[in-house]
């Protein structure tokens, strides 16, 4: 009886999905690095840049101090442990450089490879509060480097 009543109620009310706005393009974002000893250092201010959060186009950025555009990239060649970076608009990408496939998984930056979301970013200390962000194809340990999570979530300030 309960199932019959429920079925009748659903038939009267109707079941339909409410469409949601797709959030595929985001602008004016900053990416932050988090890891052991790194508590949300900004990777790159992304003022006036567009980020395709689904990974279907390149992440184009424009610095807040210049109008020159660049594209975020990683190196994915076999056994690569190479700095991630920004390719200028007129530059030609080297072999193994990937500029497509970046997406947000929640608030974390990921690279989509064969439908798998990967986050293999590592930080190598250059000086106090300065690190290079590397893409670590194998995910193996490297001297003086630590795994980091890149996120669009800003660090919280300690309460005073």
Topology:
Layout: H1 2-13, E1 25-35, E2 38-52, E3 60-62, E4 69-75, E5 81-83, E6 85-88, E7 97-98, E8 102-105, E9 108-113, E10 116-118, E11 121-127, E12 130-136, E13 145-147, E14 149-151
Antiparallel strand pairs: 1-2, 1-14, 3-4, 4-6, 4-7, 5-12, 8-9, 9-10, 11-12, 11-13
Signal peptide: 1-17
Keywords: Signal
Mean pLDDT: 75
Query: What distance lies between the first and last C-alpha atoms, to the nearest angstrom?
Result: 61 Å
Helix- and strand-based class? mainly beta
Strand content: over 45%
Instruction: Supply Rg.
Output: 21 Å
Shape field:
globular
Please tell me the total number of domains.
Answer: 1
Number of helices: 1
Question: How are helices and strands ordered from N to C?
Answer: HEEEEEEEEEEEEEE
Number of strands: 14
| Major pleated sheet | 4 strands, antiparallel
Helix content: under 10%
Q: What ranges have pLDDT less than 50 throughout 5 or more consecutive residues?
A: 1-22, 45-49
In short:
The protein has one helix and 14 strands; from the N terminus they run H-E-E-E-E-E-E-E-E-E-E-E-E-E-E. It is mainly beta.
Explain what this protein looks like in three dimensions.
With 160 residues, this protein is mainly β. It has one domain (22-151). Helices cover 8% and strands 49% of the residues. The protein contains one helix and 14 strands; from the N terminus they run H-E-E-E-E-E-E-E-E-E-E-E-E-E-E. The chain has one helix at residues 2-13; strands at residues 25-35, 38-52, 60-62, 69-75, 81-83, 85-88, 97-98, 102-105, 108-113, 116-118, 121-127, 130-136, 145-147, 149-151. The strands form four sheets. Strands 3, 4, 6 and 7 form a four-stranded antiparallel sheet that branches. It is globular, with a radius of gyration of 21 Å. The model is unreliable at 1-22 and 45-49 (pLDDT under 50). Residues 1-17 form the signal peptide. Keywords: Signal.
């Amino acid at each position: 009886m309960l199932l019959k009543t429920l079925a009748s109620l659903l038939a009267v009310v109707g079941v339909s999905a409410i469409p949601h706005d797709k959030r595929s393009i985001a602008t004016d974002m900053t990416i932050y690095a988090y890891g052991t000893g790194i508590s949300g250092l900004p990777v790159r201010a992304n003022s006036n840049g567009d980020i395709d959060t689904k990974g279907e186009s390149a992440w184009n950025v424009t610095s807040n101090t210049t109008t020159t555009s660049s594209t975020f990239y990683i190196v994915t060649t076999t056994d690569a442990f190479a700095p991630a970076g920004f390719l200028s608009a007129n530059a030609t990408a080297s072999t193994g450089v990937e500029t497509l496939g970046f997406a947000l998984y929640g608030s974390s930056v990921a690279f989509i490879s064969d439908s798998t979301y990967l986050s293999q970013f590592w930080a190598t200390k250059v000086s106090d509060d300065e690190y290079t962000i590397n893409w670590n194809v194998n995910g193996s340990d490297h001297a003086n480097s630590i795994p980091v999570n890149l996120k669009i979530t800003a660090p919280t300030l300690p309460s005073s």
